[in-house]
Amino acid sequence: MRGLEEIRKIEEALLIVERYEAYLFKRALGIAFIVCGVVFPLTAFMVLHAEPLAGLLNMSSGAFVTFAPTITLLVGMAIILYSFTSAHVVTARMRKTPVKKDIAHMVVLFLVWFVAFYLTNYVPEPYTVVSWLWAGGVASLFSYYILKRENPSWVYPELLIVGVICLTVSVPLLLMRGSQLVEALTFLTFGVSFIAGGFHSLINASKELSESDK
Amino acid sequence: MAEEEAEPLETFVKGGIFSAQQRFTIMFLLYLHKKAGFTEVQKLLGLTPGNLDHHVRRLEEAGYVKTRHVLDWRPLKVIEITRLGATAFKAYATNLRELLEQVK
Predict the structure, then answer these.
(1) Domain region containing A201
(2) What is the per-residue burial (b if ≥16 Cβ within 10 Å, else e) of B34-50?
(3) What is the tally of structural domains in chain A?
(4) pLDDT tens sequence across B29-47
(5) Residue A34: which of A182, A199, A205, A156 has the closest Cα?
(6) What is the CB neighbour count within 10 angstroms for residue A124?
(7) Cβ contacts of A7 on chain B, cutoff 8 Å
(8) How distant, in Å, are the alpha carbons of B1, B2, B33, B64, B92 from that of B87?
(9) CB distance from B89 to chain A under 8 Å?
(10) Hey, is the C-beta of B21 within 8 angstroms of any chain A C-beta?
């Protein structure tokens, strides 16, 4: 009966490995959301306020616009890439087909986000800043729907959190249009929504580790 | 290296080091992921720190894993698989596959 015992042993080990991989993925996703919540609003803020910020650093605004956002984005991307490669690619390396599928999904999601933000260029002036929240909100909800439709187990409530926060806060901000505060509040909302999504993912990740919580 | 490749099969057959579910799972996890945090493995397996330490020490004594302390956002104890451990586990897995084929 050694064979049956060994089968049970492998099954149990496989379940634990699956939980560990889910934990690593959710943790990496949480870090990615938090980094996005810090980096993107910071980059936009730096671009829009390049002149006073460059003055503070005794730089020309051209050089500031070139270097500061680029460095911020690169650092953010490096952190995200590191968290995913250390967690996911090591596992995925052994399962070649899903990696190709993952890349296809990433391209589709990138296009959704790119198109959403590209369309904000056509929004008239008093609504332009608030439209970034609409773009972020709609792109998040679309991403949630696309992933869930592709695979019912790919449910990412983090995207729902971002979408709902961005779209909900855009309503009072719309009423405040013309106020100096709108721009700052838009960036803040964007950042807070991503950070909230990120923390939700991190909390869920740690739940994957303890069987009793599942 | 020649010694390292020849010895492990004997070790697990005689010593039964992988016969315990926990040690088998630890090795399976480390074989796939190379390293894992001590606390994470402890929570995954639902073991007490002392209990996990016992299993890890047995694997360390066999030369299959090593532990080290790293500084993350908090101090972490990390368990890593060694080359000898990877070879031994691969040999064990091959042996298991043959056994399961016989069962079929």
Answers:
(1) 2-212
(2) ebbbbebbbbbbebeee
(3) 1
(4) 999 888 899 999 999 999 9
(5) A199
(6) 7
(7) 100, 103
(8) 10, 11, 15, 9, 9
(9) no
(10) yes
